């Protein structure tokens, strides 16, 4: 731009709060049917209380209480689980992948990086997936009894993790009912919703970041045209 035109431009306003390298947290929610044909995505930066309000609002929008089967999947974080507990769900499941990570880590710490560790991990995951919590827990306790020192400590960490989430380890029921046991759709949703705001050199105020994610959430929910038609149509 020529120098004269640059002189005539108004100075830029002050940098808004948040458009820096500071950490920002935004929660993403996704309510969907088993066939993934209908999806409602939401975003909020209002913390746990905001997340709870968002979940209750979207649950009401999709008439969740009227669904014949209502299941939530979460990665095991206590704060996230408590949010799902406020919804009219029949079951809340621990994401199977997150459990498998903990089992695999315990195998590595007690058996090393060996074929024996891989075989043990596969056997334990097969048991919890198809036989249920009780047989899984019994095998864990039997395995623990033969360990000492740091290896027993590693076993205790896994067992404590499992016991604290006992009510969420219902994979045998999910298998019979044909429910998902993984949060893959949610994980991919987090990537799709944040794709436009993450990247080298990008800087966002939190309000603008949430606004952009909200637009993506509209698109991912197949509500783009519905929303904009409602906004652009003249009101009577």
SSE map:
Blueprint: H1 3-8, E1 27-32, E2 39-44, H2 47-61, E3 71-74, H3 78-84, E4 91-94, H4 96-111, H5 115-130, H6 133-145, H7 149-164, H8 171-177, H9 184-194, H10 206-220, H11 224-232
Helix pairs in contact: 2-3, 4-5, 4-7, 5-6, 6-7, 9-10
Give your account of this protein's structure.
The chain has 236 residues and is mainly alpha-helical. The protein has 2 domains: 111 residues, no CATH class; 80 residues, no CATH class. 56% of the residues lie in helices and 8% in strands. It contains 11 helices and 4 strands, in the order αββαβαβαααααααα. The strands form 2 sheets. Strands 1-2 form a two-stranded antiparallel ribbon. A hairpin with a 6-residue loop joins strand 1 and strand 2. Helix 6 runs antiparallel to helix 7 and helix 9 crosses helix 10. The longest helix is centred in the middle third of the chain and has 16 residues. The radius of gyration is 23 Å and the shape is globular.
What is the domain total for the residues? 2
Q: How do the helices and strands follow one another from N- to C-terminus? A: HEEHEHEHHHHHHHH
Cα gyration radius (Å): 23 Å
* Spatial order of strands in the largest sheet: 1-2
Q: Give unreliable regions as ranges.
A: none
Shape: globular
Total beta-strand segments: 4
Helix-strand category: mainly alpha
SS field, number of helical segments: 11
Beta-strand content estimate: 5-15%
Sheet having the most strands: 2 strands, antiparallel
Mean pLDDT rating:
91
N- to C-terminal separation? 45 Å
Helicity level: 55-70%
């Amino acid at each position: 731009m020529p120098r004269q035109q640059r002189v005539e431009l108004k100075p830029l306003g002050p940098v808004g709060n948040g458009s820096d390298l500071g950490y920002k947290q935004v929660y993403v929610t996704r309510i969907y049917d088993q066939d993934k044909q209908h999806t409602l995505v939401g975003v909020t930066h209002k913390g746990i209380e905001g997340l709870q309000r968002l979940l209750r609002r979207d649950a009401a929008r999709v008439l969740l209480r009227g669904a014949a089967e209502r299941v939530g999947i979460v990665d095991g974080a206590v704060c996230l689980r408590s949010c799902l507990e406020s919804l009219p769900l029949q079951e809340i499941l621990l994401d199977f992948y997150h459990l498998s990570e903990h089992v695999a880590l315990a195998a590595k710490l007690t058996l090393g990086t060996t074929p024996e560790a891989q075989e043990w991990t596969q056997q334990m995951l097969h048991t919890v997936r198809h036989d249920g919590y009780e047989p899984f827990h019994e095998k864990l306790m039997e395995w623990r009894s033969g360990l000492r020192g740091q290896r027993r400590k590693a076993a205790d960490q896994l067992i404590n993790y499992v016991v604290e989430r006992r009510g969420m380890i219902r994979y045998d029921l999910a298998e019979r009912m044909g429910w998902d046991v993984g949060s893959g759709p949610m994980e991919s949703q987090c990537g799709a919703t944040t794709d436009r705001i993450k990247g080298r050199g990008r800087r966002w105020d939190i309000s603008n970041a949430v606004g952009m994610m909200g637009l993506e959430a509209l698109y991912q929910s197949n509500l783009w045209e519905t929303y904009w038609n409602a906004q652009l149509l003249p009101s009577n």
